[in-house]
Amino acid sequence: MPKRSAARVVRDVGALKALAHPLRMRLIHALSASGEATVSELARAVGASPALVSYHVRQLAQHGFVQEASTRSDGREHAYRRTPGGISWATSDFARLPAGREVAATATRVNFGQQLARFEAWNDKRDEWGSDWADASLMTDTMLHLTPAELGELSAELLAVIERYRVAGAKRSRRRPADSDREAVFAFAHAFPTQP
To answer: What gap in Å lies between CA 88 and CA 9, rounded to an integer?
Structure first.
């Protein structure tokens, strides 16, 4: 998997195991969308108890995926934010050991399951967002005939485009936080070899 320049590359089995949990992945996504949130806010967002969310946030913080957002913590309740940058891992980094391969496969399945669930939620409520959002959304697939090097180039180019929009959107949000047309947009892409 090509690495995003701003991504933290996970190579530690323990850290990847921390990500290979559906609730933790949902918490990371919730913090990506909200910027910062307290445990109570996260609990409401993911539909879990504050005690359970607190435990899982601590596990994510222990591995450096989230950090305390001191600007919103008030001594009574702590606010958290996602550690800046993306997260990536290459399954080949975990191929030496059977346990590493299993953790990498599980983390990949959990991540893809979260991505699919987000798409299904969008698809179920597409009409509620209105035609501007529905018309601007993207769903496409195609069959390409590439070498591994060409697939790597395609992946790197797509990641560069996504990163450019991520950085620009973050800057605009900081300048105009009340921009009524700006929403969290979840973008995901997959490109891999297959048998037709």
So the answer is: 5
67: phi then psi, degrees, rounded to nearest 5 = -145, 160
Euclidean distance between CA atoms 99 and 13, whole angstroms: 8
Q: Residue 24 in contact with residue 32, Cβ under 8 Å?
A: no
Question: What is the Cα–Cα distance from 3 to 23, expressed in whole angstroms?
Answer: 24
**Per residue in 125-171, pLDDT tens?**
999 999 999 999 998 889 999 999 999 999 999 989 998 998 888 78
Cα angle 146-91-98, degrees, rounded to a multiple of 5: 135
Q: Are strands 7-9 and 86-88 parallel, antiparallel or unpaired?
A: parallel
Terminal C-alpha separation, the chain: 22
Quote the CA–CA distance of 154 and 175 in Å, as a whole number.
32
d(CA 96, CA 99): 9
pLDDT digits 0-9 by tens, 70-125: 776 566 788 999 998 888 898 899 999 899 999 999 999 999 999 999 899 999 99
Residue 97 identity:
L
In angstroms, what CA-CA distances link 17 with 28, 29, 77, 98, 192?
A: 14, 17, 27, 14, 23
Helix and strand element counts for the chain (H, E):
7, 5
